[in-house]
Automatic annotation (TrEMBL):
GO terms for molecular function: ATP binding; carbohydrate binding; protein serine/threonine kinase activity. Residues 326-613 form the Protein kinase domain. PROSITE patterns: BULB_LECTIN, PAN, PROTEIN_KINASE_DOM, PROTEIN_KINASE_ST. It is a single-pass type I membrane protein. Residues 249-333 form the Apple domain. Keywords: ATP-binding, Cell membrane, Disulfide bond, Glycoprotein, Kinase, Membrane, Nucleotide-binding, Serine/threonine-protein kinase, Signal, Transferase. Residues 1-61 form the Bulb-type lectin domain. It catalyses: L-threonyl-[protein] + ATP = O-phospho-L-threonyl-[protein] + ADP + H(+); L-seryl-[protein] + ATP = O-phospho-L-seryl-[protein] + ADP + H(+). This is non-specific serine/threonine protein kinase. Its EC number is 2.7.11.1. It is found in: Cell membrane. Its main location: membrane.
Amino acid sequence: MGLAELKIMQDNLVLLNGNELTIWATNINSSTNKPVVVILRDDGNLILNHGSNSLWQSFDHPSHTFLPGSKVGYNKKTKTQQTLTSWTNSEDPSPGLFSLEMEPNGESIVRWNKTVQYWSSGPWNGHSWGTVPLKSNHMFNFTFINNTNEVYFSYYIFNPSVMSRFIIDVTGKIKQLTWLNSTKRWNMFFAQPAQSCDVYGYCGAYGACNDSSSIPLCDCLPGFTPRSKKDWDLNSFSGGCERKTSLNCGNVNASILEEDKYWNHSHMRLPIDNNILTIDSAIECEYTCLNNCSCTAYAFDDNKCLTWDGDLFNLQQLSENDASGITIYVKLAASEFSALSSYSIKQGEQEVKGKFQGGREIAIKKLSAQSSQGINEFKNEVILIARLQHRNLVRLMGYCVQGNEKILLYEYMPNKSLDTLIFDERTHALIDWKKRFDIILGIARGLLYLHHDSRLRIIHRDLKTSNILLDKEMTPKISDFGLARIVQGNITEANTNKVVGTYGYMSPEYALDGLFSIKSDVFSFGVIMLEIICGKSNKGFYEREEALNLLGYAWRLWNDGNVMNLVDDSLLESCNEEDALKCINIALLCVQEDANIRPSMPDVIIMLGSKSISISKT
């Protein structure tokens, strides 16, 4: 195939490909006996002339480049717009998704796909625009013209020796470039929007933008792959991503293992064009989306059910510290959830490590029909964790339920649960005092969030070392909310006829009378503190002489003035006596029989940060 060729044919400028097929033409209706010529002026304007008359000029038809002397605006007589349009990618000049247009008031706006406006220059004030960092005394002289024939803006350069141009590039940004002879390169003077993720659809469908990450800024969501790898290699991401596997929605013969599921994306800027449904529970919100084949994602936030139909655009991954971030659940084909690798059976539950195709590891908790956690407890756990966001609470990635089969997908915790480390003779010595104190403080912060700082006041009711999971940095995460209860307003206690939980961690008032409160969780926290300090389980501890459990033994040592004997021998070198005594004091305050005199979690946090505290001997 030969090279493309630009010709004058029948008074028109025509671009032909190697097969002599027309790619582009000026399409002018003109008949003249005078010769037609093409002139490329020094300012970059390509003009088609016959005699002294201009038939066509490139300045009236800008592509992605705005040169000095050219126009961006609207021709009132021909009713045509002069807009800038991005290339598809850096090697393909065909029209892309981004365009710069002008409003009648002189305001320049940038649109995605000719529809969604994502940037504005602000109105023209006679000298400049509000959001464009160009001053009137700079190198440019901008003009805005509005007459009976046309409305447009143009610009000129004060110093003719300077070469400069504006472009709308493949990333959707407006850039001003100036040529530097010293480097023989175009130097970028400014770009708007300043942040790439502020460009609508910057990463295309199912692409997540992350301004805080290293290049590339875009990444396909798990279960998706770039629609055009070539474009992505050229840093043109607006083509977005496509599913690796089609959804199975509508297949009535699909088993639970073949049904579509959800992948959890936390701390996200949500797409626009959502539907708002009058649904007041996360469970119902999910089922509504799952049973609607056009629904591709949902979010449940502030007691509102948001759903999206079709492709998802303008997703952005925000930092964990950004309070505006919301969790969105994106529908995926079941096959995108990788095969299970290993599992252990525990109380009717399968705890499984798995991996998504994107490489992200997850923990899968499957409850059998014989599990002690019924469907109500299961739904309760899903609803609660979906609403909670804290670094010391385990993160729910997704779930599914059908019949007696119930599956939860959690973030994977490589260091397993706290009990497997501190009660194991092979590993307990590896956790020094500082790390144990950090774990205590992390659990306390998680409880503080549940009791006081979250939108819901939550009593866990089953706090124990096996429900404290540890990530790769040994950050503690409270898990297993199947027995948790929400209490309204300022209510801090309730009662039940069915006592559930784990003996050894239950407060006396709950175990005997079914009365539970935030102080019940405080009691459980105190037990966990003592277990962390001494490296022994309250349930498995038995002091023969006086038939004491761990709590009774701790109180006896305290009253005898020998409480340092409680500290794990492996910690004696890494902790000082003052710190150990402080933590034992706090733990004993938390496990007092009278719930009314136990401290609250805000008090516990303050005491953990103090130098020392004291309690009276009993």
